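Worked example

This section walks through a single chain of length 220. The input is the sequence exactly as stored; nothing has been trimmed or padded.
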Amino acid sequence: MSSRTVSVRRRRLLRALVACTVLLALAGYLAVHFQTSGPGSPRCAVRAAGQDGEPYELEPQQAVNAATIAAVGSARRLPERAVTIALATAMQESGLRNIRYGDRDSLGLFQQRPTQGWGTPEQIMDPVYSAGAFYDHLVKVPGYSRLPLTVAAQQVQRSGFPQAYAKHEPNAALLTSALTGRAEASLSCAPGAQEQPGDPVRVREKLRREFGRDVLAGGA
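Given that input, the structure is written out below as tokens.
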């Protein structure tokens, strides 16, 4: 095995571990789920290291959904560009929210349609499944990683507004940096004023489905 092959595998493993670490942190945050409204609501922010300007802000559940999309891509050993395309698509389609409504029968993070062969409504409402389904279609697009983001996303989504994906590319790239470890960027979440315990069992199951084993237990 060449040294280059070993180096590439190490980088891929590092990206997967970083994504796992970020998802664990966000999952822990979700396990102590904050139910607040108004100025005291919990928020997350992504900042590029060493750069001025406003951070990209999102709600904790949006951050968890973004981490899920990134983790699925990293677990499949896809390039960071694939994660950026997926995140920008979900930002446009649903605002990174796992919604139960949309145009006609569209559902979920990517507004996938059961009648168009994307899966059952229950499957599409599973962020792990829907992210995987998006990547399944994306990797079939020839040269997707070299295409403009709007072109690559449109090849998957067949949207009536294909240019709308472009406006999300800067924030999607920033999120990708924070979630995959490609470049220095940070994602932090601040709690609101009230706390209500969540369900850590659901968090554990989410991680098991994304990484194929119970990472919280440290199993092999």
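What to look for: The longest helix spans residues 3-31.
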